[in-house]
Amino acid sequence: QVQLVESGGGLRQAGGSLRLSCAASGIIFSINNMGWYRQAPGKQRDLVAVITRGGDTTYAAPVKGRFTISRDNAKNTVYLQMNSLKPEDTAVYYCNAAIRTSFTRTTDSWGQGTQVTVSS
């Protein structure tokens, strides 16, 4: 059983910053890709950013240059630094991780979501 717990959401004015964290716990052999997704009301869940175990990163076009994803493998934690926030960044942000829980099993895990609201 693994669990992802997110923190750091909140309310900011446009132009402000927020840092999200997501920590994995449970029986963990290793974690492959970790990422952040977001879902605005009435819209589908979209990829924001993903980072490999080795640190390679990919960003969605709307956040490139403003958001930075990073991870601490020793702490099984992924971060999302969000700068120059815009009202269109308002969404529930979900953490995702591909967690190896045994020699033969990898589990695609999701956090519970954290609300980010950006006012204009």
Secondary structure layout plus pairing:
Elements: E1 2-7, E2 10-13, E3 18-26, E4 30-39, E5 46-51, E6 57-59, E7 67-72, E8 77-82, E9 91-100, E10 106-110, E11 114-119
Q: What does this protein look like?
A:
It is a single chain. The chain has strands spanning 2-7, 10-13, 18-26, 30-39, 46-51, 57-59, 67-72, 77-82, 91-100, 106-110, 114-119. The protein is elongated. The strands form two sheets. Strands 2, 4, 5, 6, 9, 10 and 11 form a seven-stranded mixed beta sheet that branches. The mean pLDDT is 96. The chain starts with a strand and ends with a strand. The protein contains no helices and eleven strands. The protein is 0% helix and 59% strand. Strand 7 and strand 8 (77-82) form a beta hairpin. It is mainly beta and 120 residues long.
Category from helices, strands and their pairing: mainly beta
Taking Cα atoms only, what radius of gyration do you get, to the nearest Å?
14 Å
Please give the number of β-strands: 11
What pattern of helices and strands is seen along the backbone? EEEEEEEEEEE
Unreliable spans: none
Give the overall silhouette.
elongated
- Quaternary structure state of the chains depicted: single chain
Q: Count the helices. How many? A: 0
- Which bin fits the share of residues in helices? under 10%
The termini sit apart by: 41 Å
How much beta, percentage-wise? over 45%
The largest β sheet comes out as:
7 strands, mixed
Mean pLDDT: 96
Key structural traits:
120 residues, mainly beta, seven-stranded mixed beta sheet, 11 strands
Give a short synopsis of this structure.
By secondary structure, this protein is mainly β. The chain has strands at residues 2-7, 10-13, 18-26, 30-39, 46-51, 57-59, 67-72, 77-82, 91-100, 106-110, 114-119.
